[in-house]
Amino acid sequence: NFPPLGNERAVQVLQGRMKGIQGHCNSCYMDAALFSLFSCTSVLDSMLFKPFPLCDRNVQNILRDEIVNPLRKTGFVMARSVMHLREQLTEKGQYSSFTTAEKDPEEFLNLIMHQILGIEPLLKLQSGGQEEQESYCYQIFMDKQEDLVIPDVQQLVEHSFLSSDLKLVEIPSCFIIQMPRFGKEYKMFSKIIPSLELDITDLLLDSPRECCVCGDVATLECS
Predict the structure, then answer these.
(1) What is the pLDDT of residues 161-181, one digit of tens each?
(2) In angstroms, rounded to a whole number, what is the distance separating the alpha carbons of residues 106 and 100?
(3) Is 173 helix (H, G, I), strand (E, B) or coil?
(4) CA 143 to CA 175: how far, in whole Å?
(5) Mean pLDDT over residues 34-42, rounded?
(6) Which residue, 49, 84, 90, is CA-closest to 67?
(7) How many CB atoms lie within 10 A of CB 197?
(8) What is the pLDDT of residue 183?
(9) Rounded CA gap, 153 and 197, in Å?
(10) Distance (Å, rounded) from C-alpha 86 to C-alpha 64?
(11) E strand or H helix that includes residue 133
(12) Is the pLDDT of residue 45 over 90?
């Protein structure tokens, strides 16, 4: 098994022609999700080694041996390997079109993490004092902001949490963020700058924070 790529090794292995995950038949949503989850981080490698029968061994083997390991070893995954995974997901799930249609990444993550590999939800969120909600990823929802022309991920997450009155109940072990939706006809942002670090201090529920006026521990929060 191969460790995730980092620093110069990542550039050496992943840069150039015929690199990444080969697309085929509306697979872009799955290709992008798998690349993001496994190419350069090990935080979700437990999915690859979770013991049977707590997970589906066949799907796990395809994910580990046909997609993740080749991606980390050579920087390239053939389309037929992803199609093999899509065929298995079609058999295991309630969805008949995983091999042909484009899906929402959240739909794919929920199926493979929850129903097939048995991973506990990664996020606990609370909105306006209501009950906690659990999820595997967070999709950014926000109205168009005229002052955000080329935003970074930090700005988008903060704007989205503020507009939805959301807080993180606890620090997540893994924070999967889906960028704002766009299609062929409309794109909210032409580019989004990746934030290499994400400050979630102001997004945490009941987290002690500094008062911006006096410097003591804050007792009130103004949105």
Answers:
(1) 999 999 999 999 999 999 887
(2) 17
(3) coil
(4) 22
(5) 95
(6) 84
(7) 6
(8) 64
(9) 9
(10) 14
(11) strand 133-135
(12) yes
Q: What pairing do the DSSP bridges indicate for beta strands 123-127 and 133-135? A: antiparallel
User: Do the Cβ atoms of 72 and 57 come closer than 8 Å?
Assistant: no
Spell out the domains of the chain, with CATH numbers in brackets. 7-117 (3.90.70.10), 123-218 (no CATH)
pLDDT tops 90 at residue 222: no
To which residue do tokens 């999700």 refer? 33
Tens digit of pLDDT for each residue in 64-74? 999 999 999 99
Cut 0.90: pTM above it: no
Helix (H, G, I), strand (E, B) or coil at 66: helix
- Which phi and psi angles does 24 have, rounded to 5°? -165, 130
| Rounded CA separation 123/139 (Å) | 12
At residue 116, does pLDDT exceed 90? no
130 Cβ neighbours under 8 A, 6+ residues apart: none
3-state secondary structure at position 217: strand
Exposed e or buried b per residue across 51-84, where buried means at least 16 C-beta atoms within 10 angstroms of its C-beta: eeeebbeebbebbbebbbbbbbeebbbeeebbbb
